[in-house]
Amino acid sequence: MTFPLKNPNPAARYRAAFRCINGCPGEYSLKDVIYQCPKCQDLLEVVHDPEPLRMTSPAEWKDIFDSRFMRTYWPYGSGVWGKKEFVCPDVLDENIVSTCEGGSNLFWAEQLGQKWGLKDLWIKLCGNSHSGSFKDLGMTVLVSMVKQMRHEGKNIPAVACASTGDTSASLAAYCATAGIPAIVFLPKNKVSTAQLVQPLAHGAITLAIDTDFDGCMAIVRQITSRNNIYLANSMNSLRIEGQKTISFELCQQFDWSVPDVIVIPGGNLGNVSALGQGFLQMKAVGLIDRLPRIICAQAEHANPLYQSYLKGFTSFEPQQAKSTLATAIQIGNPVSIKKAIRVLKEFDGIVEQASEEELAEAAAEADLTGLYNCPHTGVALAALKKLIRRGEIQPDQRVVVISTAHGLKFTGFKTRYHASEYQDMECRFANPPIEVPAKYDEVRDALLRGLETRNAQFSKS
Predict the structure, then answer these.
(1) Of 30, 59, 174, 233, which is most buried by a Cβ count within 10 Å?
(2) Whether pLDDT at 4 is above 80
(3) Cβ atoms of 78 and 16 closer than 8 Å
(4) Considering only CA atoms, which of 186, 350, 360 is closest in space to residue 272?
(5) How many structural domains are present in the chain?
(6) Collapsing DSSP states into helix, strand and coil, what is residue 184?
(7) Phi and psi at residue 430, to the nearest 5°
(8) Is residue 124 assigned to a domain?
């Protein structure tokens, strides 16, 4: 059974534009090919006129969102486009490129929470998406805008990105859906096989460059600025507009209540600024009445934001990121650093780091409770565990960890852990297969030993 799609006030004229994050005068159309402020060269952000949004009451907006959520009314069943008026009103419905992204499940991590001393722990499984990561939420907006601009006659021959894996997979999938050429720049031998094969399968022009992500980013910025190719990295603020709907969706899934704490893995830091922007927009129009605390978790081998946090954000120094199991956040010079610091200051934020062993053990321990975590979610879980033990998160607080990608993209990470192949790691929760001959007594004895070991592991924290 379905019920009619509800629509907002038809008299409202929704409007959004690019503006400089530093407040330089001037604004720019979302259809302009522009990524930085012409005056100060810093990033832009999308700013919405709140008055048309306020013409519909908060109660009506909630009813509208609930009437659209995960239904078959194109394109409003998407978790992103169901909030179109708050995201990107400039794209016509017929030019929207969507795979019904969003609507990812909110996993109640009851067992893990009990082990770690939390009564109300949830994992937002953003990796349960079309290409297997949260990047789909932003890419649907960006590629839809490219299709709209091409529809209006703009010469955009292709869309390009630098990537540590997930951005390239998402861009390739959405461009293939739209029939638009995609170009991806990957750091050679630094992404998983599962991530590499995705853009190949979708027909993207894929360049493996002998550098790291920051090196790829420098090249793609030159290529896009000189060849009329559209840039799809998170310095393009249209990506943030889609990703901010995680905040909307969380509140919606909690019957429009606000979690106390959000834990986000941080690399290029677009997701930190995106979620913050989503909560601020909801508060500005009365959908929520308070803000959560935001925690950013970084890998110890790629932790420039953490180092800045230790100095009270008085300075920031880019670094050469070291190799980390959390490959997608192996970034030493994050593009969205200023946006992320601004959000963390406004949301009473904390930045914590996780070592390689801490992130691997946290991911494996959580897997034992029914999850299947990517290493980046492992970073967030490890940071959360440290904060709980220090008393900075209270047992009765509602905590949500943002899981950014599906664990199936990182089978190599899982396989090596359970084979105890990582040097200098105990691999406390490793669970290799037990090889036994086809004899009842030996199978029984091995099984009983296995049960004893497993019960001991479940009791560890």
Answers:
(1) 174
(2) no
(3) no
(4) 350
(5) 1
(6) strand
(7) -60, 140
(8) yes
Lowest mean pLDDT among 20-24, 33-37, 160-164, 361-365: 160-164
Q: Which residues span the domain enclosing 361?
A: 106-129+239-415
Whether residue 223 is contained in a domain is answered as: no
Whose tokens are 């995201």? That residue is 87
List the structure tokens of 47: 């700013």
DSSP letter for each residue of 321-348: PPP-S-GGG--SS-TTHHHHHHHHHHTT
Task: Kindly indicate the confidence band of residue 1, based on its pLDDT and cuts at 50, 70 and 90.
Answer: very low
Do the bridges between strand 106-108 and strand 120-125 make them parallel or antiparallel, or are there none, so unpaired? antiparallel
The answer as to whether 8 is a domain residue is no
Mean of the pLDDT values across residues 339-357? 98
* Global pTM exceeds 0.90: yes
DSSP state, 125? E
Q: Which residue type, as a one-letter code, is found at position 203?
A: G
DSSP for 43-94, written as a single string: BEEEEE-HHHHHTS-HHHHHHHHHHHTT-SSTTTTSTTGGGHHHH-TTS-GG
320 near 332, Cβ under 8 Å?
Answer: yes
Distance in angstroms (rounded) separating the CA atoms of residues 19 and 29? 9
Minimal CA–CA distance to 11: which of 72, 69, 52? 52
Looking at residues 298-313, what average pLDDT do you find?
98
